[in-house]
Design a protein that fits this description.
The complex is a heterodimer of chains A (244) and B (246). Chain A is an all-alpha fold and 244 residues long. Helices cover 69% and strands 0% of the residues of chain A. In chain A, helix 3 packs across helix 5 and helix 8 runs antiparallel to helix 9. In chain B, 68% of the residues lie in helices and 0% in strands. Chain B is mainly α. Classes of the chains: A mainly alpha (244), B mainly alpha (246).
Amino acid sequence: MDFSAVWDYLAEGANWSGSQGMGAYLVQQLLLTVTSVVAAALIGLPVACWLGHIGRGGALAINISNVGRAVPTFAVLVLLSLGPLGVGELGPYGRAGLATLVALLLFALPPIVTNAYVGLREVDREIVDAARGMGMRGGQLFRSVELPLAMPLVVSGLRLAVVQVWATATIAALVAGPGLGNVVTEGFASGNTAQVVAGALLIAVVAVALELAMAVVEKAAAPVPATRTRIGPEPRPETPASRT
Amino acid sequence: MILALPRGGSHASTLAALPGIDTSSDCYNFVNNSWFCPAYLTDRRAELLAATQEHIWITVVSVLVGALVAYPLALLARRSPAVSAVVLGGSTILYTIPSLAMFSLMLIPPLPGISPWSVVIGLALYTLTILVRNMVAGLEAVPEEVRDAARGLGYGRLKLLLRIETPLAMPVIIAGLRVATVSTVALLTVGSILGYGGLGNLLRLGVQSDFRAQVLTASVLCVALAVAFDLILLGLQRLALPWQRG
């Protein structure tokens, strides 16, 4: 394979246009990623914040990530698409859209829940006690003290979820589902190596771009700039979340 | 009307579409397509064993290669903060790349292309993020007094590293190996894009032919393998580090 063939494939406008083009698949996969991360955040964050606030359910919040790591995303996608959810078209989400969305949601939840829970639990107890001493009660304490201090870890959970979901959405093509993985699988099916590598490069570049963009959001979410005195949770070695 | 094509070794499936014929003994034809099917396990035993064997050897080799690369990288990262930033940042970026893309990029020469070694390289690269971090953390957690005592006993740098620091770092390193191995078992299924995905190959073929028993069996075997590897490493940790017990 010649590298110039890959550039030629990427530079050719026709490969980007149309319903089977890279443009449509890219938009479809971004849509899948945003939808499932937003849905997972709407479901997972309130639960994790509540558990973190009252200090219960730690084992559940932590173990959900360990289980998520052992279960192959590919297997879940396959089981859901052969199961009751089926492979029907779902609007802009395409063939097997519902099965894909549910699988993505399931794999977005662990990092979101675990990080938000740990973030809230690691807020310095002395700060919480001081706030209580100043007369703050449940809701106010949560809004004005716990949540702002936990924010960096909450956002870090969202970053892990975005990267994980983007990767999982890629393999939806293996169950004849939506997304950019189709560029790769069609390339393999037609023996077009340049197309396979071009699709893989596009998928990888967008993944890295999403990671970097979310890292910027994460920095912005810190209540105090990192260079000054740290009052939030201690930075700790991050155990990578489940991967696809 | 569905055509009842024979799927396994049993003749019952060819009769499945005919009314009034009991096909309960053959649960994996197109008509029944059950999720649970003991007959599938016995009929396709050889195929299941071969896929499981491929899954095991690719996992073991990938994690071993990853560990052999991660150890010197961790030693380099420990030497200077600049190298540490490059190594940890680089492995984090690699970890961000979706596996389907990673395995497909192996088609770029001189990488091995359509070969099990492409899957091994991709998986080994993924383990680096976890392994380098844990190796650095484990080595840095060795108390300075212990190093001083060893130096006082005349230990040189290499002997200190191999006889004192590395054994003391082992609990953290093995914890990293467990996480790396469990995620490798799961990620390997995507290797089916190159035809070397172990049990993932059965998932891929199963979804193409709408074969529920095969898909469920392969999924369960995958999770069972992940749990088995985790328990084996836990056992090794207990055996190798008796002072960690209790």
